Amino acid sequence: MRFAHRHLLGIEHLSQSDITEILDLAETYVDMNRQSTKHSDVLSGLTQINMFFENSTRTQASFELAGKRLGADVMNMAMQASSIKKGETLIDTAMTLNAMHPDLLVVRHPHSGAVDLLAQKVNCAVLNAGDGKHEHPTQALLDALTIRRAKGRLHRLNIAICGDVAHSRVARSNLILLGKMENRIRLIGPPTLVPNQFAEFGAEIYGDMNEGLKDVDVVMMLRLQKERMDGGFIPSEREYYHRYGLDAAKLAQAKPDAIVMHPGPMNRGVEIDGTLADDINRSVIQEQVEMGVAVRMAAMDLLARNLREAA
């Protein structure tokens, strides 16, 4: 089977087989990344540009490492201090990039749809590293790989996504991916952070953590996105932790072998108890970081194959 996509802009346009193909290839890169020699030449001769209009240390580092391990020439553009500040439009940026002839463009942008617009204007493959509240496809894919490796499957699981769903592109991408793979999804949080409209994704909505976590296989916590909040979404961080922060007592409602996830960066003592986050018997948060490099390697590998076939 061939990965029939020019870009990776979201999960929405991927089929079950597309998702499985990325995860299966990522498994081979997990093995490679654990070797003493972590290098391949599948992107040799190709140029990867990372354009981050929003700061993200871990995602940018993950994409940079992924490209370098595959042999690409990798360049990071600090867009916060760039000509964008001087009034250059996204279209102008696209034209400038085209003149540089990159092959892979990794873009993170604060506005939903901006990455899609850029993809329409450039002549290379584009990977969405997060756009506004819209999508973060590689995060959902690395979460999926983490779940599949921990649980031995990626279907018919009970999965709880807890916290700031309203502002989270991670939640949106995971809702789409996990729904496509036939899982039962519960969203847990206060009505201000989990609006009823998310029921359209086929998810069950709970306002109570103990009730929502009952017998789930996976507990996925979300970061409180304070930078996207412009009002009183929560009474206080202390009250939020009391009601919606994950601790051992609340986790006891889930299955005994339930895994705990968080996309990072974590607000310890707000979204999750620090001891629980570090518990190697329950938490797979470090594994998520490891899977992130492998998944991004797989995605860029598949897109590069299409580039070479089209050339």
User: If you average the pLDDT, what whole number results?
Assistant: 92
Quickly give the structural class: alpha/beta
| Approximate helicity band | 25-40%
Q: Treating each run of at least 4 consecutive H or I residues as one helix, how many helices?
A: 11
Determine the N-to-C terminus distance: 20 Å
Looking at the structure, what is the overall shape?
globular
Number of strands: 9
For the sheet with most strands, the description reads:
5 strands, parallel
What is the H-and-E element order? HEHEHEHEHEHEEHEHHEHH
Q: Strand portion, in percent?
A: 5-15%
**Nearest-angstrom radius of gyration?**
19 Å
Give the neighbour order of strands across the main sheet.
7-6-5-8-9
Poorly predicted runs are: none
